[in-house]
Amino acid sequence: MKRTLTILLFVFIAAVAVFATIHHHQLVKQRQAFDAPSPATSIPSGQSSTPANPSAPNLVQQLPIDASAVIFVDAAALRTSSFANELAVLAPSSAQDPDYTDFVRASGFDYSRDLDRAAVALWPQTSATSVLALAQGRFDQAKIERYALRTGRMVRIHSMNIYEVREENSPRIIRFTFLAPGEIALADGPALSQVLGAPNTHRFDPEMSARIAGVSGAPIYAVARTQDLPKDLGIDTSHSAQLARLLRSVHAITAAGRPAADNLKISAAAECDSTLDAFQLSTTLQGLLWMGRAALADAKTRQEIGPDWPALDALLKAADISHDSHLVQLRIEITPQMLQAAGAATPANGVTRK
User: Fold this and answer.
1) Neighbours of 274 (CB within 10 A)
2) Residue 58 and residue 139 in one domain
3) Phi/psi of residue 56, each to 5°?
4) pLDDT tens digits, 259-280
5) Which of the four, 2, 68, 264, 351, has the lowest number of CB atoms within 10 Å?
6) Is beta strand 320-324 parallel, antiparallel or unpaired with respect to 327-334?
7) Tens digit of pLDDT for each residue in 135-164?
8) Could you tell me which residues come within 8 angstroms of residue 84 by beta carbon, excluding any fewer than 6 positions away?
9) Is the residue at 64 inside a domain?
10) DSSP character at residue 68
11) Is the same domain home to 210 and 253?
12) Residue 8: which of 111, 150, 154, 126 has the closest Cα?
């Protein structure tokens, strides 16, 4: 589960971190093509879409309302897309990832096959709990319990069996329990108790609820609120007071991904304190992008970066940044070619070269 969350976060953070500088008429053309609705994902202008599966909003609403960020993934819907087939081609084989193969054999659970939906709450790493996930799918409860008891233990909380396993190379303890035969809750801290017992009747505050409603039609989305974005993302801004101030003006980020044929369209919006902040931040990031693209045009730089440079270059060229009022908006379309470039940078043992 931790690895799945890391992959999801990487997609969104990487998308927010790279932007394209293109002439104005090219940008308009690209945005019109990007926003053209597809039969599977069209959302009428000015309206939020309702997920096809009625359990999806209920799963998100079960999360603790004080979460700094929320991620939702409808894995069952994504599996039916052509984009999922492209990802499956790049998935590591049992020889490349023997640890995960052993886990699947022992637990009977393979997230690429058995996970249907997951709703995840995130807090800063300094919090008592940093991750809490609710997942729906097909679970072999007996096998998973036996697997957990290899290195962990079972305790009783709120008349429920809670399994505790110490996280590798960390003082944190992973706790999980079965809320129902097809639903599991997992956390790396005490926040797990917030989803135990009686059904959660709480709701997020109006602003957070509105942001979630705005992207709830997408099969994968993330909504985050922040008081200090550089600190939350671990960004060193000591070299630029101006960039630090602009990043701290961001108080919320919303992102959504929708399959479109063989591609995945990702759109994101950062809410700034003012229109001026949004304009200055978008201009600054476009300048950084221009420098990044110029650097990648140099053979020496590409050699220093190593085999990862084609994937990075493709991201820089595909991304589009704009601003509208107090929003800094990003659009990027992940293609099979980008996935292949990223996969080519990973050798057979599954460890990315540096």
Assistant:
1) 11
2) yes
3) -60, -55
4) 988 889 999 999 999 999 999 9
5) 351
6) antiparallel
7) 999 999 999 999 999 999 999 988 889 999
8) 78, 259
9) yes
10) S
11) no
12) 111
